[in-house]
Specification:
- There is one protein chain.
- This protein has 392 residues and is an alpha/beta fold.
- The chain folds into two domains: 228 residues, no CATH class; 103 residues, no CATH class.
- The protein has 16 helices and nine strands.
- It has a six-stranded parallel β-sheet with strand order 5-4-8-6-9-7, sandwiched between helices. The protein has a three-stranded antiparallel β-sheet with strand order 1-2-3.
- Helix 5 crosses helix 7, helix 8 packs across helix 15 and helix 14 runs antiparallel to helix 15.
- The longest helix is centred in the last third of the chain and has 25 residues.
- It is globular and about 65 Å long.
- Bound molecules: zinc ion (ZN).
- Zinc ion binds next to loops.
- Keywords: S-adenosyl-L-methionine, Transferase, tRNA processing.
- This is tRNA-uridine aminocarboxypropyltransferase.
- One of its GO terms (molecular function) is tRNA-uridine aminocarboxypropyltransferase activity.
Length: 392
């Protein structure tokens, strides 16, 4: 009974909707009942306000080292740099310090009010919608960077006192595949984000962060996709209007891709690229839409090849009996994919099952770290177990 209740609560909360085929329809059609922030987020929003560490010499900008420390290999996005500089000069202009609170660093207080006016004006002045969109993304990233400075561990995105890095065991992903974590700026530096676990385990070469709306990141990703060719790019997204294939259909014996796959694996040059959409239920549609647009501009076709994960025992039996996790979480979707590929004879010798397990272990470590934090902050365990499903 309890399990059932938990599972139900989970399926309505976690996003992007669901990677599981069976629940897709109901979820996509039904209005999501709960898109509230998880208790982990709200716990963080109750943490005391922090001033940005801006005043020490040289701290008024984001260095390459600092930027890359958060889990990316890209240069510092130009627009993020610009916005950070503007925020800094605003401090001088209005003689007020930036103050951040809550998860990922939201501006607070007098500075927030002033900055709000200013950024709205900047936004209005921007002519085309693409620029507006990029500004919106970069501003969010800039605020998160400044607000998390000296507060979050750069690797695990948890408050320093809750760092879980020592609990993670790195593992090599089969070199024939690569994950792209297409992340919404609102999920960047979010403590309960699970996507970050993927590159913590597999490294940033195998799992590459691509921030939605950050030109430098999107260019990098699409340049790779151009080189890889459309046949080697797959999106894990259960969209009802998209043509989705099961793992078996896409990569199994009978698939038309099979021959190509075999060829690819032997020449070792080409890699299968999998995009994981890492955003809330409500944001993921927009993210998928942008991917389709970009696919069209490159390949002239709007249908970005999509994979939906199977339901049922065949894939589920490999997972530990933790209904609250399932595979709707971003990292868990990767676990699902690895587990399903493992079942195909042509993929069975790459140790994908072990790699899936390594991610699961990472997820368990994250859950434990978040739970320990809740307990330390004086929240009840009952609440924790009831809401443990909220991680996504
Ligand atoms: Zn850490």
């Amino acid at each position: 009974m309890l399990l059932l209740a938990r599972t139900r609560a989970f399926t309505f909360k976690c996003a992007p909707s669901s990677y599981l085929g069976f629940s897709t329809k109901t979820h996509m059609d039904a209005k999501p009942r709960t898109l509230l922030r998880s208790p982990f987020s709200s716990s963080a929003s109750r943490s005391p306000p922090r001033e940005a560490h801006m005043n020490e010499p040289g701290n008024g900008f984001i260095s390459l080292q600092e930027w890359q420390g958060w889990g990316t290999k890209s240069p510092v996005p130009a627009m993020v740099t610009e916005i950070v500089e503007e925020l800094q000069s605003m401090e001088n202009d209005i003689d007020a310090k930036m103050s951040f609170g809550g998860i990922g660093g939201k501006l607070q207080g007098y500075f927030k009010v002033q900055e709000d006016k200013k950024h709205r004006a900047t936004y209005q002045a921007l002519g085309d919608s693409e620029k507006k969109f990029q500004f919106f993304a970069a501003r969010q990233i800039a605020c998160r960077l400044l607000g998390s400075r000296g507060y979050l561990c750069q690797k695990c995105w948890l408050p320093l006192e809750d760092c879980m890095c020592s609990r993670l065991i790195p593992c090599s992903l089969w070199p024939g595949m690569r994950f792209w974590l297409y992340m919404h700026p609102k999920d960047f530096l979010r403590q309960n984000n699970t996507g970050k676990v993927l590159w913590q385990v597999f490294g940033i070469e195998a799992v590459t962060l691509c921030l939605f709306g950050i030109a430098e990141h999107e260019e990098m990703m699409w340049n790779t996709f151009k080189r890889a060719g459309k046949n080697n790019v797959w999106c894990l997204y259960p969209n009802k209007s998209a043509v989705t294939k099961s793992v078996q259909e896409a990569f199994g014996q009978e698939s038309s891709a099979d021959q190509k796959c075999t060829q690819l694996m032997t020449d070792g040059d080409k890699t299968l690229n999998f995009i994981l959409i890492d955003g809330t239920w409500s944001n993921s549609n927009a993210m998928f839409g942008r991917l389709k647009e970009q696919a069209k501009s490159i390949w002239g076709e709007e249908d970005l090849p999509c994979i939906s994960l199977a339901t049922g025992a065949s894939a589920m039996h490999k997972l530990r009996p933790q209904p609250s996790w399932d595979r709707t979480c971003t990292a868990a979707a990767a676990v699902g994919l690895l587990s399903e590929l493992q079942l195909l004879p042509e993929f069975s010798s790459y140790g994908l099952d072990k790699q899936a397990e390594a991610v699961e272990d990472g997820l368990v470590a994250l859950l434990e770290a978040l739970t320990a934090r809740r307990l330390r902050m004086g929240r009840s365990i009952t609440r924790k177990s009831r809401h443990s499903s909220d991680i996504c």
